[in-house]
């Protein structure tokens, strides 16, 4: 349960795309429910009065608070074989790795608990405070995942029970569309019942309707899930226009594009997050923006399984809500900092291709307007990982920023001499946090630079590490607010 927190130090956030604010020497206080009720410069009279009554935990020079990361796309059971099997095409990879792993966890809840506990611990240690999870087809396995995320290592988790009535693996499939729909509805009801008795601010877990993707779902199942989402007002997640072989499969079997199938099934709404979307044209992205659906951009797994990069700049310009995803295990890194870096790298490569095509007066699929740059920078990537992801997930008001009324979802990052962060030109001067220093953290920071992680005002690092705050030395100032 949260208790009131009080911090003094530097804070960094991205309230809008491309804008990074460094708020130096601020006082931040939360109430007992974990919501920020004071955030202002320490020099102001009200801040001084607050500090006079209670000693704040000091964020030392060289350290700062930044909002927690949002991971919009992760396959929880696939964490078991993270970093393997990436030599295959998508559809073959699903047969040889994904379905097997998911079926194995559905048949062994002890193993599932071990895998899922470690997964959530790893997420917290990497600064992720909110995550949208694909699960398996068995209800009990997904309820286990939801319980662990709510109780054992508290994290904002959107848990999806897979719906799939078509499969290349006969032992891993739901018998009919009707039974699949009934199971999806039952999971949603039981997941909601699990947290219903908790105070609203402590309800961190939500169910998500999760058609795996078009090739594994009959038209009846897809349209039924669309109706179920509208009836229960439950969120939706899936994969859309992901890979060349998958897109061709849908065209051959359904006679239309992925996006049209989802549209006809009422599965593209403001409650929807679609992963990948690499084969959407600029016009498709404008259509997608009109539906209100969001995109989970997974640059690392796209490099392995899609023949095209995602049109990120075009999506942002079209008004599509976009966040980042790790796509474990199609992507091998669970660290959203890697996803940010890969997003920038891919965008720079797209921009290089655009420049070359323009110079050679060639027509390129990368853009309709050769005069418009396609790259994003680190500031925009940090926005996608924090505020942008929070908006895409529909998190509580203010999430992804530091503002009065927002929950304290934050990570404490430390700098000089920790991990790979070295600064050689400070001399004896008092540390003054600059954009260059934040950029260096963005490029080189690791888990070594993370002192604490707070979700709804509670420091969840202790749960992630299997420790209690009083088991740590009080020489680490983060323990004062543990």
Automatic annotation (TrEMBL):
Q: Which SUPFAM superfamilies does this UniProt record tie to the protein?
A: Metallo-dependent hydrolases (SSF51556)
Does this UniProt record's set of keywords contain Zinc-finger?
Answer: no
For activity, the cofactor(s) needed are: Zn(2+)
Query: One Pfam family this chain carries?
Result: Amidohydro_1
Any one GO CC term of this protein is: cytosol
Keyword line:
Hydrolase, Metal-binding, Zinc
Under Gene Ontology molecular function, one entry of this record is: zinc ion binding
Q: Where is the Amidohydrolase-related domain?
A: 64-409
Please name the PANTHER family in this protein's record: GUANINE DEAMINASE
Its recorded name reads Amidohydrolase-related domain-containing protein
User: Organism classification, top ranks?
Assistant: Eukaryota, Fungi, Dikarya, Basidiomycota, Agaricomycotina
């Amino acid at each position: 349960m949260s208790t009131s927190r009080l911090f003094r130090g530097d804070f960094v956030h991205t309230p809008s795309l491309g804008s990074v604010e460094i708020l130096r020497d601020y006082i931040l206080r939360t109430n007992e429910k974990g919501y920020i009720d004071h955030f202002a410069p320490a020099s102001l009279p009200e801040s001084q009065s607050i500090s006079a009554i209670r000693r704040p935990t000091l964020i030392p020079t060289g350290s700062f608070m930044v909002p927690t990361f949002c991971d919009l796309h992760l396959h929880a059971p696939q964490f078991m074989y993270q970093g393997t099997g990436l030599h295959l095409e998508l559809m073959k990879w699903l047969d040889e790795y994904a379905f097997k792993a998911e079926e194995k966890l559905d048949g062994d809840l002890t193993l599932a608990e071990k895998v899922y506990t470690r997964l959530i611990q790893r997420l917290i240690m990497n600064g992720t405070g909110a995550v949208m999870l694909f699960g398996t087809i068995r209800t009990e396995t997904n309820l286990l995942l939801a319980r662990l995320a709510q109780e054992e290592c508290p994290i904002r988790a959107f848990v999806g029970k897979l719906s799939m009535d078509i499969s290349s693996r006969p032992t891993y499939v739901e018998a009919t569309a009707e039974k699949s729909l009934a199971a999806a509805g039952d999971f949603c009801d039981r997941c909601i019942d699990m947290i219903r008795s908790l105070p609203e601010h402590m309800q961190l877990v939500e169910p998500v309707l999760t058609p795996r993707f078009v090739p594994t779902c009959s038209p009846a199942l897809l349209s039924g899930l669309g109706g179920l989402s509208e009836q229960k007002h439950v969120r939706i997640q899936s994969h859309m226009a992901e890979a060349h072989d998958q897109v061709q499969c849908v065209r051959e079997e359904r006679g239309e594009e992925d996006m049209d199938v989802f549209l006809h099934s009422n599965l593209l709404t403001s409650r929807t997050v679609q992963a990948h979307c690499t084969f959407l044209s600029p016009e498709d992205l404008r259509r997608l923006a009109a539906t209100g659906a969001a995109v989970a951009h997974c640059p690392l797994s796209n490099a392995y399984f899609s023949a095209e990069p995602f049109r990120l700049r075009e999506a942002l310009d079209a008004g599509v809500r976009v966040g980042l995803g790790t796509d474990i295990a199609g992507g091998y890194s669970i660290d959203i900092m890697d996803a940010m870096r890969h997003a920038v790298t891919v965008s720079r490569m797209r921009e290089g291709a655009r420049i070359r095509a323009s110079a050679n007066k060639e027509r390129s699929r990368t853009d309709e307007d050769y005069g418009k740059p396609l790259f994003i920078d680190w500031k925009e990537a940090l926005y996608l990982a924090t505020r942008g992801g929070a908006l895409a997930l529909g998190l509580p008001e203010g999430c992804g920023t530091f503002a009065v009324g927002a929950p304290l979802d934050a990570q404490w990052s430390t700098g000089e001499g920790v991990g790979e962060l070295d600064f050689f030109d400070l001399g004896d001067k008092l540390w003054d946090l600059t954009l260059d220093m934040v950029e260096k953290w963005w490029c080189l920071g690791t888990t070594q630079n993370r002192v604490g992680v707070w979700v709804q005002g509670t420091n969840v690092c202790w749960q992630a590490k299997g420790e209690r705050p009083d088991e740590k030395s009080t020489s680490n100032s983060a323990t004062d607010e543990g």
